């Protein structure tokens, strides 16, 4: 009997992305490879401009890559045309952008409901997320009347409403106070541990990265360093490991 091999939820293979604007060329990703398993939580750290957001956009199939492959549950995104890609993304991925991307004319609650197509249990799920993320009292407000941190939590709820296999989040706690930030991290950790979701977040904060299993360090569009964080739960250790990784990359 042949063994069935289940592909990893996320495989990034030698991805290259080059931005061209007139004469200027930016090599944003220069060959990034990464495999993330089911139930694994990884944090991507790196200086501003190191390619973190570009990598997240490439994983989400939101930017065309110039080389390499992105496979979600074994499916190469490049093999899907626009409409199937959008459907595939809706089925598998939850996205939290650095700039939230909420619809200004919709209330907080309607923004959260937007990606969901209805169905049994949706109301309960919306309620659960509103409560869990501490935004129930703001449900009828439009994004313009919400603080940055509230908008961020709406964006997180919207990304989770379809129960994605993979959550991609660009600095999901960047606008939050430290207590709320830690609550969000705890929620993400539980999604991995209890529901075997796969989570990839970008962060500058060791307090956030310490919740991950693994930190991938991006420098100048390459990920040549990473370290494990499991069980450490120690922001200082994460900060030291991160600085050590950067220094090692500097001399190599
Ligand atoms: N649309 C674009 N056109 C041209 N260059 C771009 C574009 N988007 C990003 N870049 C460049 O690509 C590089 C990587 O950008 P990216 O946004 O991925 O960095 P980042 O690591 O997310 O930074 P930050 O921490 O500031 O968010 C940068 O040099 C940036 O200026
Ligand atoms: Mg960015």
From TrEMBL:
Key word Amino-acid biosynthesis present in the record?
A: no
Q: Specify the ABC transporter domain's residue ranges.
A: 10-245
Q: Which UniProt keywords apply?
A: ATP-binding, Hydrolase, Nucleotide-binding, Transport
For this record, the Gene Ontology CC terms, alphabetical, are: membrane protein complex; plasma membrane
Q: Which PROSITE patterns match?
A: ABC_TRANSPORTER_1, ABC_TRANSPORTER_2
Q: What class of enzyme is it?
A: hydrolase
Does DNA-binding appear among the keywords? no
| One Pfam assignment | ABC_tran
Which InterPro entries does the UniProt entry name for this protein?
AAA+_ATPase, ABC_transporter-like_ATP-bd, ABC_transporter-like_CS, ABC_transpr_LolD-like, MacB-like_ATP-bd, P-loop_NTPase
Q: Name one GO molecular function term.
A: ATP hydrolysis activity
Q: Which CDD domains match?
A: ABC_MJ0796_LolCDE_FtsE (cd03255)
- EC annotation from Swiss-Prot or TrEMBL: 3.6.3.-
Family of this protein: Belongs to the ABC transporter superfamily. Macrolide exporter (TC 3.A.1.122) family.
Q: What is this protein called?
A: Macrolide export ATP-binding/permease protein MacB
- Species of origin reads Thalassoglobus polymorphus
What gene is it encoded by? macB_5
């Amino acid at each position: 009997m042949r063994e069935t091999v289940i592909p990893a939820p996320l495989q990034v293979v030698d991805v290259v992305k080059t931005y061209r604007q007139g004469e200027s060329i930016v090599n944003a990703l220069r060959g990034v490879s990464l495999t993330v398993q089911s139930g694994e939580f990884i944090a991507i750290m790196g200086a501003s401009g190191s390619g973190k957001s570009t990598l997240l956009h490439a994983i989400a199939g939101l930017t065309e890559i110039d080389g390499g492959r992105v496979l979600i549950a074994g499916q190469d995104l490049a093999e899907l045309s626009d409409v199937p890609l959008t459907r595939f993304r809706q089925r598998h991925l939850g996205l939290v952008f650095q700039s939230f991307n909420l619809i200004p004319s919709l209330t907080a609650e309607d923004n959260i409901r937007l990606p969901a197509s209805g169905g049994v249990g949706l109301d309960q799920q919306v309620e659960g997320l509103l409560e869990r993320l501490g935004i129930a009292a703001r449900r009828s407000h439009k994004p313009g009347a919400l603080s940055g941190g509230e908008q961020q939590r709406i964006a997180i709820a919207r990304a989770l409403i379809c129960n994605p296999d993979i959550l991609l989040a660009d600095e999901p706690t960047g606008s939050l106070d430290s207590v709320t930030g830690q609550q969000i991290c705890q929620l993400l950790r539980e999604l991995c541990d209890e529901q075997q979701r796969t989570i990839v977040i970008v962060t500058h904060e060791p307090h956030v990265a310490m919740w991950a299993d693994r930190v991938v360090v991006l420098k100048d569009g390459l990920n040549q360093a990473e370290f494990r964080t499991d069980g450490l739960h120690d922001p200082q250790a994460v900060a030291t490991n991160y600085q050590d990784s950067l220094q090692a990359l500097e001399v190599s």
